[in-house]
Amino acid sequence: MSARGPIPIGSMVPLTGASAADGYEFRNGLWLAIEELNARGGILGRELVPYFVDTGDQSAERVSAAARELIRRHNVHAIVNGYNIGAQNAEYEPIADAGILYVHHNTLLQHHDTVMGDPERYFGCFMSDPAEYWYGQGFIKFISWLRDTGQWKPASDRLAIISGSRPYSIVTANAMRSSAADFGWTVAFGPEIVKTPTNDWEYAIELARKVKPAILANTHFYASDIAHFQRQFRNNPIDCLVYLQYGGMHQTFIDVAGPAAEGVIVGTVVGLVRDDDGAAYGRRYRARFGPDSTPEVGALSYSAMHHYALAASVAGGTGEPYEFTQNRKVAARLKDITYRSVLGTIHYHPAWQAAVPYPDATRDPSRGMPHLFYQVQDHRKEQVVIAPVPYNTGRFAVPPWCTGAGTRPGGDPGLMPFG
User: What predicted TM-score, i.e. pTM, was given to this entire model?
Assistant: First the structure.
């Protein structure tokens, strides 16, 4: 283990391509975390230096090449980034060969299978958010909670599902479908898979309209794409709730959708908590990167970097590539140390090495990352967190396009989370 000199930290970020809007925020989040850590002395007195490689289309080839470049050219001690959905864990191989830490937000159930299939080889691979499966199951629990607490009176039990063509989106949609009947819902349409990226959703919306759903869910996640979906939906709306995921919390979604966004529900298994710490971080982030930046997205790499630095400090320092003994110590501390971040609690499951979701997999908010549900109630203001308790900042409001008798609100959410 090197005793002197700066510590290189790598990051694989999509700075071009369909996810570039998120990629720049992932880069910003890591920058801000490293600036803050260096201002406090780095890791055991050693300064941190970030290195970024563009992953473009996030293909297996592109992401794996980025990992090799960071390891071979920059000798990084860890790779910390947001998501690269499309590589399907191919990048784990050069990372496991080098024995460094890899903390990411790919949101893939496949991560569980890979790590549990060979925990010795993939000891350093951590997914700092829950898998996409929890989007689907958690969404069904959430809409059931709205119904059962009387906050929303659905006109029917029918659910329509539209999915993007990425495996991530399809897994989420299928999890919705498989969980629906257990909570009294009928999937009347879908999952209808639309080839993505795309800005054309009108055909899928018209197909969903025919079944008169109580809820229309779109599991695609690119912010600009789903903003166009929402605009096209609002041109001739269906009397139902609309659910979008992840990308809907990005400023790009609001910029493109504008007033058409008002009323939409956005779910994310990894999102900024609206407490004092989250608000203070948001102010620092926007002061550093501008008022149109999205701290909710930058918070992913920001929180993961702080957690890694804490674990490495307790472990006695970072390890270079091929320093397996020291890097195993860091990995062990990353699993041992539950970290309360601006995303809520990062607590790694000992077998999955992925963040445990609250309330989907644990009823204890101090041991799980909150599966947050936002609602856009005024596109000019911050989105309102409507679930789960105790993270909510407001209550569900009936969307402005809903006019039927089945949409009248009532009831009280009480103090129970939706899980």
Answer: 0.91
